């Protein structure tokens, strides 16, 4: 089979792998009002769907990272697409709320090792000059998923119902799987006999490879077995940001429909706009990182912008002004949805490929732990007497905590002798 250099085809499957897992959850969120009515469940029970999804993803990232280090790219990518398709197909089965919970859990499993394997593919198959820019594109897969699901689910649900829409959408991961099998077999490793060359300021104290595959036994005896404090700090920031991100994403269409009297389709459009802005933001922040910007400083800027977005949500809640809601949507998409690309870029700068899946797993587990907490907590709050006002205030507190953590990271980086 003819070998090809890393190009648009490889980038498209990386983006598709990141996008496949979240498709179900974003589709459910976009049609939340119809699902809550159809199944006769509460807002908190609807939030539990996202919590189950992201809890499974968090556990998977925390436990499967080292296993993923020892599995081939093709094996892991195949698992991602097959499990994502299974989750969507199961959601289309008229089995009631319990079956939907299982489907949500499978959707989370599909997201368990996506960042790890796609980051490793970047290190092993993509030239260093392209990597950080490609991170922005492939991480925007989550927002592409949000955009596609938020637009297609409400429209198709009018014709074939939300279950029928889930069944139709299950075809997308299967098509991506066929494309993946073709492309990964034609794009070779950069250095088949040794570790992929790290980026210019990457750590070189990690490990080497003898076959182009991460291998625990190939690690230098001097290499640390655990993860650095920096990795755990990134995971903590990802957790805090994740709480705010999914508390907002999951309930944004419902907030627009119930509090501002938007239609179901227009409510779904709010999430779609957030997705469009998020795609642009992730690509843009990746370019900033590629020019050598400080990761901690960018995290501080993003946290402050997310705080401003919460202020706009509170303003829309108090006044009912649609303009404030759209402002909040844009700020949310530009800030909170851009955090993961900064986190993954920092990892690519400092982690060798032999530990990339496990290190990415730790940081991603932090994000997904936040994703799991956010929707359930928001659902409980808006179901209480405080309603959405109390929910947005809680999101603001979370973003304030992430701002404080970012300040600490910036101050540590500026200390003499720090990297």
Short overview:
This protein has 17 helices and no strands.
Keywords:
419 residues, mainly alpha, Growth Hormone, Chain: A
Assign a percent range to the helix content: over 70%
Beta-strand portion reads under 5%
Overall, the morphology is globular
**What's the story with the biggest beta sheet?**
none
Unreliable residue runs = 193-224
CATH fold description: Growth Hormone, Chain: A
The CATH class, by name, is Mainly Alpha
Please provide the count of β strands: 0
Straight-line N-to-C gap: 44 Å
Q: Give the helices and strands as they follow along the chain.
A: HHHHHHHHHHHHHHHHH
Number of helices: 17
Describe this structure in words.
The protein has helices at residues 8-20, 23-30, 32-39, 43-69, 73-91, 97-110, 114-125, 128-139, 141-169, 171-184, 229-259, 264-290, 295-319, 322-334, 339-350, 356-383, 387-413. With 419 residues, the protein is an all-alpha fold. It has a single domain (8-193, 226-413), classed as Up-down Bundle (Growth Hormone, Chain: A), CATH 1.20.1250.20. Helices cover 76% and strands 0% of the residues. The protein contains 17 helices and no strands.
């Amino acid at each position: 089979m003819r070998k090809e250099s890393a190009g648009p085809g490889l980038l498209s499957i990386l983006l598709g792998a990141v996008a496949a897992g979240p498709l179900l959850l974003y589709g459910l969120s976009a049609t939340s009002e119809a699902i809550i009515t159809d199944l006769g469940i509460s807002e908190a029970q609807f939030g539990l769907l996202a919590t189950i999804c992201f809890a499974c993803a968090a556990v998977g990232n925390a436990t499967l990272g080292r296993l993923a280090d020892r599995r081939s790219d093709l094996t892991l990518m195949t698992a991602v697409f097959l499990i994502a398709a299974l989750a969507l197909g199961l959601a289309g089965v008229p089995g009631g709320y319990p079956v939907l919970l299982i489907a949500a859990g499978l959707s989370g499993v599909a997201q368990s090792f996506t960042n790890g394997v796609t980051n490793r593919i970047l290190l092993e198959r993509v030239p260093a000059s392209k990597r950080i820019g490609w991170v922005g594109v492939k991480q925007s897969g989550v927002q592409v998923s949000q955009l596609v699901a938020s637009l297609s689910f409400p429209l198709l649900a009018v014709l074939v119902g939300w279950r029928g829409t889930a069944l139709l959408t299950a075809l997308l991961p299967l098509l991506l799987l066929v494309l993946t099998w073709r492309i990964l077999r034609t794009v070779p490793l950069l250095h088949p006999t040794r570790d992929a060359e790290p980026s210019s300021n990457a750590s070189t104290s990690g490990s080497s490879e003898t076959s182009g595959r991460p291998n625990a036994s190939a690690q230098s005896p001097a290499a640390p077995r655990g993860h650095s404090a920096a990795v755990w700090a990134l995971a903590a920031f990802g957790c805090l940001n994740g709480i705010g991100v999914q508390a907002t994403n999951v309930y944004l269409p419902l907030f627009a429909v119930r509090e501002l009297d938007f239609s179901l389709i227009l409510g779904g459009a709010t999430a779609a706009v957030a997705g469009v802005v998020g795609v642009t933001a992730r690509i843009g922040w990746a370019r900033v990182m590629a020019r050598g910007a400080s990761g901690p400083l960018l995290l501080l800027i993003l946290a402050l912008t997310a705080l401003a977005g919460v202020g706009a949500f509170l303003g829309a809640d108090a006044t009912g002004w649609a303009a404030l809601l759209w402002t909040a949507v844009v700020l949310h998409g530009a800030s909170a949805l851009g955090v993961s690309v900064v986190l993954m870029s920092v990892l690519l700068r400092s982690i060798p490929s032999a530990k990339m899946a496990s290190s990415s797993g730790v940081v991603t587990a932090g994000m997904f732990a936040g994703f799991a907490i956010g929707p359930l907590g928001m659902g409980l709050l808006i179901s209480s007497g405080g309603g959405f006002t109390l929910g947005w205030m809680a999101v603001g507190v979370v973003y304030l905590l992430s701002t404080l953590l970012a300040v600490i990271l910036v101050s540590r980086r500026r200390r003499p002798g720090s990297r």
